[in-house]
């Protein structure tokens, strides 16, 4: 009976790690794709979104580096809780900063810019929620 309980606990932990790993990888893909698009397309996106090209390039580079960190974290045999907390808190801060950007620069942003900033903030909020759920299950 003890062996069964340990096996079940180990399996549950492995399943939780697998789910968290999948969310981290999906976050990495989305962040990396958005980062490359922002950095490479800054010259066009600045007019379409109403965001300065320099901001788009900076955010794009940051997102590519962030995505790389997520890939490294997701590849670890055991995903450390403190590192996952940093990701959850970072994603939460990103959502708040995105909302602040819309509130503070909303006259400068185009309608498409507002939609894009709010849509990516919503996606990041979902990632943060799923990552937090993965932490709670551990």
From TrEMBL:
Keywords: Membrane, Transmembrane, Transmembrane helix. The keyword Transmembrane applies. The chain crosses the membrane at residues 26-45, 51-73, 85-106, 112-135. It comes from the Bacteria. This is Integral membrane protein. It comes from Actinomycetospora cinnamomea. The lineage of its organism: Bacteria, Bacillati, Actinomycetota, Actinomycetes, Pseudonocardiales.
């Amino acid at each position: 009976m003890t062996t069964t309980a340990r096996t079940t606990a180990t399996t549950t932990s492995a399943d939780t790690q697998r789910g968290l790993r999948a969310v981290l990888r999906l976050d990495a893909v989305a962040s990396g794709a958005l980062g490359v698009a922002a950095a490479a397309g800054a010259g066009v996106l600045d007019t379409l979104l109403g965001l300065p090209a320099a901001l788009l390039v900076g955010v794009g580079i940051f997102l590519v580096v962030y995505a790389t960190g997520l890939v490294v974290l997701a590849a670890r045999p055991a995903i450390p809780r403190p590192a996952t907390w940093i990701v959850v808190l970072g994603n939460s801060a990103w959502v708040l900063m995105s909302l602040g950007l819309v509130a503070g620069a909303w006259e400068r942003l185009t309608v498409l810019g507002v939609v894009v900033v709010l849509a990516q903030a919503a996606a990041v909020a979902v990632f943060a929620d799923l990552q937090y759920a993965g932490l709670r299950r551990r």
